[in-house]
């Protein structure tokens, strides 16, 4: 038998020793699809991977997707529940593990109330599991404290889009429109390295004549495509957007008809522009006024245009306002709700979109409902079969949970699918807090840095084993099949939640026997909400990827949002005057350089998975500090030496990598390595006041060589 792949590759599957798996990549938000051919030859197993066709990545896979199976089959995969006894993990049965949870959670909550347990979720979980985790926290544990790692990822863009448009969905229009847009602004987004399989859409736009503007303090694989690269001073993007707006107002590019019909707040924004001086913006951002003018004119006068943001502008203590200001640009030029025009905040994790819609957030109920809205509470309480007054209220954000742990207000923590001791800002503080917990339970596929601190670790299934739906960066719901058998005593996240709920006496609310059953409840729970999945079924997802909102069976899904009206009750979008604010953290005599953090192509987030994939790990075996040679010389740092990087919080180590591509006042360190290389040991835990996003992208540091070579003989 011969299997033919979407892009023409073929897997010969002629003998019974071959096992063909269909899956979706576990890493980023594109959700590329693939086939994995597993062959057994005697003792040896071999794997071949090939991309398959889907309407997003169009038969493409990046190097991470091609090698993801290497971690899925890694011998270090967790296989059994592990309990810590005398500082060492010992294998226990599921029965013992569940009993341990029951006893500990019961004892903690008995003396300290339901809110003494916190739940910490993830954008790696399927929609079904994210939904179930939210329900688990509120119904099984009755705690208000639940939040998730997406707080560090999508919170600035999500709250800005909610407030400006009345709805938060990654892309407001179809990805297939990108090639036909005439001007694209990419602000703090490195798509070529972070969502590489959609980068060809941007190449097509360029070939079709689009003018591409990239805003980034570094030259990246993405900025290579730019007609104009604005090498902005870190953290000053809100001011830069004010510069663009100033030019648009001054030179008369406002689409007054659109603004009058479809927006609120124009008068305030216009008045605010009287206080904006281009010279001041030039000084703040380090971008010459002429370049600001050019960018603004190109975007405003282009017949169609799109703006994309990502973590570069969002992971700031003014990330919310910065995104609002980029949305201002979209709105005053009327470039939204029609072909080739729109806004997108490029979602990060595999299910970064779905993970933020169905109740993992501190203030949220499924379907993007609000936990403080009486009607929303009533509806969900009915779906769940509980009394509305038993539904807890609003909790706090991910990092604020860590602060509550440090203050002993939260005494037990249940982590599913995240590695918070590495990914939170000010990680040394977080490590100390987690160590002080009475009970830490981590559900993971590996003994991550956080799992190592746990009292109990539960082994969960990975992408080849766990069927479910993921909503990708487009806002399209996708279905991930899974056929690989569970290794040893591994269980699915959803099974683990159901089993714990049962021992806690809440089994009747969690009597699910398949992901599809959970999805059926999710459909109902989301019905009538902003993220309405009611018209989406597993049957349908086996054939197509569906854009939400999709309110009824037979509804085609909504590819382009806001064609007629925005999602606020009056149908209008909101403009907002945004000040030229600096990030809270600023450089000083003691800490004279900006540190910014981010990603490299072959590694993923805290690296738990990609560092275990030999093909990926080999590309970068350790962390590095990208530094301009002039800056390096100033601090007596040779190429390829270990550098100590210090901030007011702590220190980290990385190897020097000279680069002319970075600003002289800035250094860049990726986030994928742990221990002394964990860059979050030094980042600031200042939070954006609106969305509680930490200022990951601006940290004041000093640097020095680990070994002073001048002194050595
Ligand atoms: N290879 C790879 N791909 C990934 C991931 C991964 O870990 N590895 N993670 C996934 C996830 S969860 C996410 S959230 C996305 C992240 O995707 P991106 O947000 O695109 O990635 P980052 O590298 O964090 O940041 C993007 C760019 O912002 C720039 N930047 C830093 N500071 C500033 C600033 O002040 N202003 C501006 N304008 N730019 C700035 C950086 O130089 C960087 O090039 O990627 C997803 N895809
Ligand atoms: N300085 C700095 N810090 C950052 C960022 C930055 O740009 N700069 N970016 C932030 C962003 S955007 C993000 S998204 C966060 C992410 O931060 P984390 O949540 O810590 O991200 P991961 O490394 O993906 O951790 C996921 C963990 O879950 C496990 N896992 C994977 N799949 C599953 C599953 O299906 N079930 C279970 N139970 N476990 C699973 C993995 O093995 C891994 O240990 O980091 C943030 N931290
Ligand atoms: S990491 Fe992202 S772009 Fe690469 S294969 Fe996976 S889903 Fe596709
Ligand atoms: Mo992210």
Automatic annotation (TrEMBL):
Keyword field: 4Fe-4S, Iron, Iron-sulfur, Metal-binding
Cofactor(s) essential for the protein: Mo-bis(molybdopterin guanine dinucleotide)
SUPFAM superfamilies: ADC-like, Formate dehydrogenase/DMSO reductase, domains 1-3
CDD domains with a match to the protein in the record: MopB_CT_Fdh-Nap-like (cd00508), MopB_Nitrate-R-NapA-like (cd02754)
Record-level GO BP terms: respiratory electron transport chain
Keyword Iron among UniProt keywords: yes
4Fe-4S Mo/W bis-MGD-type domain boundaries: 18-76
Coiled coil: none
Cited InterPro entries: Asp_de-COase-like_dom_sf (IPR009010), MoPterin_dinucl-bd_dom (IPR006657), Mopterin_OxRdtase (IPR006656), Mopterin_OxRdtase_4Fe-4S_dom (IPR006963), Prok_molybdopt-oxidoreductase (IPR050123)
Protein name per the record: Formate dehydrogenase, alpha subunit
Source organism: Bacillus smithii 7_3_47FAA
């Amino acid at each position: 038998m011969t299997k033919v792949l979407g892009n023409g590759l073929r897997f010969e599957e002629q003998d019974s020793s071959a096992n063909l798996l269909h899956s979706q990549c576990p890493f980023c938000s594109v959700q590329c699809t693939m086939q994995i051919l597993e062959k057994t030859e005697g003792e040896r197993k071999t794997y071949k991977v090939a991309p398959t066709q889907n309407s997003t990545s169009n038969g493409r896979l990046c190097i991470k997707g091609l090698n993801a199976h290497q971690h899925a089959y890694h011998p270090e995969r967790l296989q059994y529940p592990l309990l810590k006894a005398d500082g060492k993990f010992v294998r226990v049965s599921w029965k013992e593990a569940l009993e341990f949870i029951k006893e500990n959670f019961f004892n903690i909550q008995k003396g300290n109330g339901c809110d003494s347990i916190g739940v910490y979720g993830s954008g790696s979980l399927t929609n079904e599991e994210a939904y179930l985790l939210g329900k688990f926290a509120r119904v099984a544990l009755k705690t208000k404290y639940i939040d998730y790692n997406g707080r560090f990822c999508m919170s600035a863009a999500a709250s800005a889009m909610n407030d400006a448009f009345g709805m938060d969905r990654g892309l407001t229009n179809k990805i297939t429109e990108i090639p036909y847009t005439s001007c694209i602004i990419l602000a703090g987004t490195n798509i070529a390295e972070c969502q590489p399989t959609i980068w060809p859409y941007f190449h097509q736009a360029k070939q079709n004549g689009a003018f591409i503007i990239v805003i980034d303090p570094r030259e990246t694989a993405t900025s290579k495509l730019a007609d104009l690269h604005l090498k902005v001073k870190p953290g000053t993007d809100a001011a830069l957007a004010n510069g663009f707006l100033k030019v648009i107002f001054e030179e008369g590019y406002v689409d007054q008809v659109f603004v009058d019909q479809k927006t609120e707040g124009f008068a305030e924004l216009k008045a605010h522009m009287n206080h904006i001086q281009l010279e001041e913006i030039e000084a703040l951002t380090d971008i010459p006024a002429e370049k600001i003018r050019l960018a603004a004119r190109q975007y405003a006068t282009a017949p169609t245009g799109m703006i994309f943001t990502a973590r570069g502008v969002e992971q700031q203590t003014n990330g919310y306002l910065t995104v609002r200001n980029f949305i201002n640009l979209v709105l005053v030029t009327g470039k939204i709700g029609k072909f080739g025009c729109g806004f997108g905040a490029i979602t990060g994790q595999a299910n970064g979109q779905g993970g933020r819609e169905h109740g993992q957030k501190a203030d949220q109920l499924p379907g993007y409902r609000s936990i403080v809205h009486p009607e929303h509470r009533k509806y969900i309480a009915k779906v769940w079969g509980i009394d509305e007054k038993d539904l807890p209220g609003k909790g706090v954000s991910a990092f604020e949970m860590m602060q509550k742990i440090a203050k002993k207000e939260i005494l037990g923590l249940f982590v599913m699918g995240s590695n918070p001791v590495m990914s939170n800002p000010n990680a040394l503080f977080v490590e100390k807090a987690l160590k002080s917990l009475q009970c830490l339970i981590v559900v993971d596929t590996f003994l991550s840095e956080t799992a190592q601190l746990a009292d109990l670790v539960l082994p969960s299934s990975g992408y080849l084993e766990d069927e479910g739906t993921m909503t990708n960066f487009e806002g399209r719901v996708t279905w991930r099949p899974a056929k690989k058998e569970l290794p040893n005593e591994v269980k699915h996240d959803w099974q683990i939640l159901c089993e714990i709920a049962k021992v806690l006496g809440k089994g009747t609310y969690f009597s699910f026997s398949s992901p599809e059953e959970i999805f059926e409840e999710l459909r109902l729970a989301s019905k009538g909400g902003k993220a309405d999945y009611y018209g989406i079924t597993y049957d349908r997802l086996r054939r197509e990827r569906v854009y939400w909102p999709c309110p009824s069976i037979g509804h085609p899904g909504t590819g382009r949002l806001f064609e007629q009206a925005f999602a606020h009750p009056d149908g209008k979008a909101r403009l907002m005057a945004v000040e030229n604010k600096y990030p809270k953290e600023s450089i000083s005599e003691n800490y004279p350089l900006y540190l910014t953090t981010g990603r490299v192509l072959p590694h993923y987030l805290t690296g738990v998975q990609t560092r275990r994939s030999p093909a990926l790990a080999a590309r970068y075996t350790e962390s590095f500090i990208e530094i301009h040679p002039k800056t390096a010389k100033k601090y007596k740092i040779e190429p390829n030496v270990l550098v100590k990087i210090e901030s007011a919080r702590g220190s980290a180590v990385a190897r020097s990598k000279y680069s002319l591509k970075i600003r002289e006042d800035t250094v860049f360190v990726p986030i994928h390595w742990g221990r002394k290389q964990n860059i979050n040991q030094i980042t600031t835990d200042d939070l954006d006041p609106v969305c509680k996003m930490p200022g990951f992208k601006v940290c004041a540091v000093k640097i020095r060589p680990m070994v002073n070579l001048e002194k050595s003989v």
